[in-house]
Inverse folding.
């Protein structure tokens, strides 16, 4: 159930993309009560960061005209 909450369309990645810091904070407060729960959020956020990084690295515009 915890994994589904984090990974759903309105889960952690959605909250990051849409700057829902307060909601992320609430999710963290609920999940941090049991340390093993934090790994679920960490894995989800790691996947999110990796995906964003790949998009940046493979962006043709940035390759042609890096800033």
């Amino acid at each position: 159930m915890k994994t589904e909450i984090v990974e759903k369309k309105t889960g952690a990645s959605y909250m990051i993309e849409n700057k829902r810091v307060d909601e992320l904070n609430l999710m963290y407060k609920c999940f941090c009560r049991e340390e093993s729960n934090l790994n679920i959020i960490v894995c989800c956020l790691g996947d999110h960061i990796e995906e964003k990084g790949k998009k940046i690295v493979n962006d043709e515009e940035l390759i042609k005209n890096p800033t």
Remarks:
- The two ends are 42 Å apart (CA to CA).
- The chain is about 75% helix and 0% strand.
- Residues 35-57 form the longest helix (23 residues).
